[in-house]
Amino acid sequence: MLRRHFLGLALTTLAMPQAAISAAKAAERKAFDKAAFNAAQRSGARILVDISASWCPTCKAQKPIIDKLAEKPSNKDLVIFSVDFDSQKSVVRQFRAQSQSTLIAFRGKTETARSVGDTDPDSIAALVQSTRTR
Predict the structure, then answer these.
(1) What is the pTM of this model?
(2) Which pLDDT does position 99 carry in this prediction?
(3) What burial letters (b/e) apply to 100-126, b meaning 16+ CB within 10 Å?
(4) Is it the case that residue 7 has pLDDT exceeding 80?
(5) How many whole angstroms separate alpha carbon 73 and alpha carbon 79?
(6) Is 134 domain-assigned?
(7) pLDDT tens digits for 89-128?
(8) In a domain, 7, yes or no
(9) Residue 79 or 2, more confident
(10) CB within 8 Å of 46: residues ≥ 6 apart
(11) Is 75 part of any domain?
């Protein structure tokens, strides 16, 4: 019994660092903040702006695709800014977005790609890939 408890504790302990490592590999997702966005642009960061609405079925379809891309180690340096289409109208206008489900990719201050209403995992991955240095 004691041996089984020890083995379970040891396996749990070994799994914890792996979970921490996995979390460190994920892209950073945050609510849009103008100062943080400007700082990310000045630093030359890879940025994805995700303009969505809670009621939007297309946005709901995009979310797991974006989340999966965010988990890839190759995107650990990607910063994802979430913009709420309904409550952040001035930000939506700043990005010249006409509708929710708009994704805008940047490398620093340069817009590299934009899509609206896209739910194809491959084309969203290509949009994120466009933020890489050419």
Answers:
(1) 0.81
(2) 96
(3) bbbbbbbbbeeebbbbeebbeeeebbe
(4) no
(5) 13
(6) no
(7) 999 999 999 999 999 999 999 999 999 999 999 999 999 9
(8) no
(9) 79
(10) 75, 77, 78, 79, 105, 106, 107, 128, 131, 132
(11) yes
Q: Which two tokens stand for residue 62?
A: 């995009």
- Provide the CATH number for the domain around residue 60: 3.40.30.10
Q: Give me the number of domains the chain comprises.
A: 1
Q: Longest C-alpha distance within the chain, in Å?
A: 64
Q: 1-34 b/e with 16+ CB inside 10 Å = b?
A: eeeeeeeeeeeeeeeeeeeeeeeeebbeeeebee
Q: What's the rounded Cα separation, in Å, for the pair 56 and 75?
A: 26
Residue bearing tokens 């960061």? 45
- Residue type at position 87: S
Q: Is position 5 within any domain?
A: no
Q: Which domain holds residue 120?
A: 27-129
Tokens of 43: 């630093």
Is a pLDDT exceeding 90 seen at residue 5? no
Higher per-residue confidence, 5 vs 99: 99
Is-contact 58 119, C-beta < 8 A? yes
